[in-house]
Structures are given as structure tokens and as C-alpha cells.
Amino acid sequence: MTLQQSGKGGIRIFEDFCGPEWIIAETAASGALGALRVIGQGIETDDSGVIVNETDPTLSGVARLTTTDEDNHSCGLTTALCFDVAKMAPLVLECRVQFSSAATKEFFFGLSDVNTDTAILETGIVYIATANATTVVYGASDVCGFLFSAEATDSTDWHAVYKGGVAAAVTDSTELDLDNTLTTGEWQVLRLEVDNNGTVRWYIDGVLLKTLEGAVSTTTDLAAQAILQTLTTTSMTADLDYMLVKASRDWTI
Question: Which of 182, 140, 175 shows the shortest CA–CA distance to 160?
């Protein structure tokens, strides 16, 4: 039944990365950074984690996601599986992200139904399997968001990926290419807007690049997440200036 709606009617998670860290030397299986959980294959080792970068020009609070130096290891930030699109939309996910290099890495920002401690993009959530390839592989049953992959044929562009909604999942990366280039050394704002019927809008730097009805499941419990993965035996980093998640509250429980 629907309960009386009172008190805090909305959910707003905003992490500006002005203090809390999951230090590189920490070896726990997962951790906490503000309202977000630190996950990823390899974060239990002493060379992966999320630190606050205090070096100019990355002031105002910047989290640096750092993977290990092992192929297909990952480091990410996630919420719980706590968002139901039909009950809690409109949903808004937004982050401001920057990379020092576009090579040998994958990065996902969006929603998925996979948030395990050792979550990876390769085989686990969404990825492009081989270098210079056009096939997107969906490891998760439900996923929707932005994917950057150095393995893609267009290895410098952001892609819109989705699976689990009414719209059939597309695996050809050339059809998912947003024609927006990841520019190293520059900040980009990724924004995902989700309606309660599963319609999703992809924005980069305030520009609407794609709208698709039925792009995401309206019944599956999903997590909001940002995940970086290395595609080589070299440690990779990604800088996040902030991460925002907004949703309506589920008043049916």
C-alpha cells in the first residue's frame, strides 16, 4: 500500500570529495566514502583505492580513483541497489570527470544491477572485449549509462549503453557512439536523466546527445555507480570532481 507522504520526500546524494578517502594502502574488501561504497577487483590490495587529490589545479575536492597494475582490475564508487525506476523516478545521475590519458582503460557511469565488492566492467557489467572492436558485451542483466572504452573502434568517444528495458539492447558500438570525444586533461560533465517509464536522456557538458524510450528496466533494483578499469598491467586513474544522485522516495513501502 502507499503510505502517507511526509518528511523528506526526495533522495539526494552529493559527494564533493572534500575529505574522506579510501587510502591506497587499505586492504579491506570494500570501503565507504561519504554516502558511497568503494568497490572493485583489486581494491583489497595495497595499490588501489580512492584518495582526495590536494594538488593544484585539482582543488575544490577531487577524488582520484586508482586501479592496481593488473589487467582488468577496477576501482569504483557505488550506491546500494536501492533505485526502482517506476517507483522513484525521475532519477538524475551526474558527475564531473577528467582523465590524464585515454589509453588502456574503460570507464562506466550510470546504473546497473551489479555492485559486488569485486565488480568489474570486463565480463561483469559492460565492456568491449577486444581492441579496435565494435561489439559491446553486456555482463549485467540491467545496465544503462555512459561507457568509454579504449578498445572501441572509436576509442576516444563516449558511448550510450543500455540493456534490460523495453528497448532491445544494441551491441554495435558504432550505433551507440555519442560522437563526443573524451578530451584528456579537461573536465567533462556526464548527466543521465531517467523517467518512470524507462525513458533515458544522455547529456555531456549540458548538451543533450541521445534520448531513448524504454532504455532501462522499470522494475529492477539498480545502483548508481562510477567504475574505472585498467586494460593493461599499468595502474590507471580517473579524477571525479563530484558525483550526484537524485531520486524520488519510494512511498509504497
Answer: 175
- Note the pLDDT tens digit of each residue in 4-36: 555 667 999 999 998 777 666 667 667 778 899
Q: How far apart are CA 188 and CA 20, in angstroms?
A: 23
Amino acid (one-letter) located at 203: Y
Give the pLDDT confidence of 42-55 residue by residue, as tens digits: 988 888 989 888 77
Q: How many CB atoms lie within 10 A of CB 41?
A: 25
221 part of a folded domain? yes
Task: Indicate the residue type of 97.
Answer: V
Provide the CATH number for the domain around residue 129: 2.60.120.200
**Mean pLDDT calculated for residue range 119-132:** 92
Structural domain for 109, as ranges = 10-248
Query: How buried is 40 (Cβ within 10 angstroms: 0-12 exposed, 13-18 middle, 19+ buried)?
Result: buried
Residue 81: φ, ψ to 5°:
-80, 80
DSSP 170: P
Does residue 192 belong to any structural domain of this protein?
Answer: yes
**Cβ pair 200, 216 in contact under 8 A:** yes
What's the whole-model pTM score? 0.94
Query: Is 228 within 8 Å of 127 (Cβ atoms)?
Result: no
CB 152 within 8 A of CB 172: no
